[in-house]
Write a structure and sequence with these properties.
This protein is α/β, with parallel strands linked by helices. It is built from 3 helices and 9 strands. The strands form 2 sheets. The protein has a 6-stranded mixed sheet, sandwiched between helices. It binds 1-O-pyrophosphono-5-O-phosphono-alpha-D-ribofuranose.
């Protein structure tokens, strides 16, 4: 695999995450404690940075899913591996993702969260591959739209490598 080529710099990411945090803090002001639900594994860095930049009360939860099939794209069949631990009934929930590709995972997760009867469900993602969308799913708080490239860093991996890069980079897989 080639060395990642910078697509979105650390500074650009930090600026955008601060903007998203300010927007969320303003939108949810005086609505009580919100619940940020991070989707493992990829969302852990965005969740850490975003949650620490909010100026409103927040709780942190995690959820884990896996897609059936072994391709690099999700097959559309998503399975819940770990649910939220706390009670989110009547709470304002924001699902936090690193990337939205086909959209299947996020669409499934919105349905999952709604089954817990929260007050509301919104979505946040650092990047979205707009051209790859297979289902219509709203990203309420979006960092960046990107092309159909293999990206790593800031939580995103290729075969578990490069997740902790502070920037988003493009790699060219060997195969
Ligand atoms: C990524 C990402 C989303 C999903 C998006 O997870 O975090 O959950 O793929 O793809 P989709 O829009 O096509 O459904 P991944 O399967 O890479 O798992 P990871 O976060 O544990 O690396």
């Amino acid at each position: 695999m080639t060395k990642p080529v910078v697509l979105i710099s650390e500074e650009e990411i930090q600026t955008r995450v601060a903007e998203l945090a300010a927007q969320i803090s303003s939108d949810y002001e005086n609505l009580g404690e919100i619940v940020l639900v991070g989707v493992l594994k990829g969302a852990f860095i965005l969740l850490a940075d975003l949650s620490r930049k909010l100026s409103i009360p927040r709780n942190i939860e995690f959820i884990a899913v896996s897609s059936y099939g072994n391709g690099s794209r999700s097959s559309g069949a998503v399975r819940l591996v770990m649910d939220v631990r706390g009670n989110i009934e009547n709470k304002h929930v924001i699902i936090v993702e690193d990337i939205v590709d086909t959209g299947h995972t996020l669409k499934y997760l919105i349905g999952m969260m709604e089954s817990h009867r929260p007050a509301s469900v919104k979505t946040c993602a650092l990047v979205r591959k707009a051209e790859s969308a297979e289902v219509d799913v709203e990203v309420d708080y979006l960092g960046f739209d990107i092309g159909d490239e293999w990206v790593v860093g800031y939580g995103l991996d290729y075969a578990e490598k490069n997740r902790t890069l502070p920037y988003i980079g493009v790699v060219t897989p060997d195969d």
